[in-house]
């Protein structure tokens, strides 16, 4: 049997690149549709929305007790005009592969031992360090940033993270000239982080790691979060410290970091 392969339009060699003029005209056209109230009916794929999650009474118990942080919101990342997603919607809806493949992992995540906690920074750096949680929340100036997340799974959130820019830590450890990448390693204990189960759980190379180029880590948007909604991170959000990089999809950043 002869198999005929028909290339997709984006795979055809010599396919012309969309002109910048046409690109901006298209964006103005979409905005005009939304302005006339036609966005939801004509262009349902533009917005990644989901129904608000009902707050389980037990979810409130997962919030860190009496650990609210009085942190000033960054005016640069205030995202004026956007409605922050209610915390009730985010408490029970996460990606945390170490505790399962569903979004409803908040109960399993309570097994995470978040105290005491240390983060090791080593490798091609001039000043290797081991930070505890107090170091991370006192040595680096904290700020609140509003970041938008759009997921390929057809959901989106607007989240107020508390933390500090990754480049602050990068400056403190002083990478050597030949350092090109940074690897973030998440907490792993096979007795606690049981993974997704099935055969997949036995084949994933634990612990989970995620990498950035040094230039990406130094980008002004790259962020270490130690809190959310004015308080320290709940365990299901990746306590006590996680990476937040708005341009990355996947599982939304390595959580519960122990090593960089």
Helix and strand topology:
Blueprint: H1 20-35, H2 39-42, H3 87-91, H4 106-109, E1 118-121, E2 129-132, H5 133-138, E3 143-151, E4 155-165, H6 166-173, E5 181-186, H7 200-203, E6 209-213, H8 214-217, E7 223-228, E8 231-232, E9 242-244, E10 257-259
Antiparallel strand pairs: 1-2, 3-4, 4-7, 5-6, 5-10, 7-8, 7-9
What does this 3D model show about the protein?
This protein is an alpha+beta fold. Helix content is 20%, strand content 20%. It has helices at residues 20-35, 39-42, 87-91, 106-109, 133-138, 166-173, 200-203, 214-217, and strands at 118-121, 129-132, 143-151, 155-165, 181-186, 209-213, 223-228, 231-232, 242-244, 257-259. Strands 3, 4, 7, 8 and 9 form a 5-stranded antiparallel beta sheet that branches. It has a 3-stranded antiparallel beta sheet with strand order 6-5-10. Strands 1-2 form a two-stranded antiparallel ribbon. It is globular, with a radius of gyration of 21 Å. The chain starts with 19 loop residues before the first helix and ends with a strand.
In CATH's first tier, which class applies? Alpha Beta
The overall pLDDT average reads 79
Shape: globular
Strand content: 15-25%
Structural class: alpha+beta
* CATH H-tier superfamily: Oxidoreductase, molybdopterin-binding domain
Helix-strand sequence: HHHHEEHEEHEHEHEEEE
In the CATH classification, which architecture applies?
Alpha-Beta Complex
Low-confidence stretches: 29-53
Radius of gyration: 21 Å
Portion of residues in helices?
A: 10-25%
Helices, by number, come to 8
Distance between the termini: 52 Å
Counted beta strands? 10
Number of separate structural domains = 1
CATH topology group: Sulfite Oxidase, Chain A, domain 2
Largest sheet: 5 strands, antiparallel
